[in-house]
Amino acid sequence: MLYRPMPGYWYANPVGQLQQVRMVLYRGHDQSRVIIENISGKRQLVDMEAWFRLGLVQHSPRVERRRRIRRDSSNETS
Predict the structure, then answer these.
(1) DSSP single-letter state for residue 41
(2) Rounded alpha-carbon distances, angstroms, from residue 16 to 4, 11, 25, 31, 55
(3) Is residue 71 within 8 Å of 56, Cβ to Cβ?
């Protein structure tokens, strides 16, 4: 699954290293570049083609926590 970059969200590469999207730059209405930062603070500017080649999967605790809360609340009503 290919994930669109979302500022503030964490993504893991195929070997498990975390990258955070710091900023998404637009050209008109289209995303054109992404600034990502690894866990040690090194920032990198990549274009959208390179973003999708990185093979990142979303790893955002906020998203996981929301999914877990929804799942738990739906189990309680069953």
Answers:
(1) S
(2) 18, 9, 25, 25, 11
(3) no
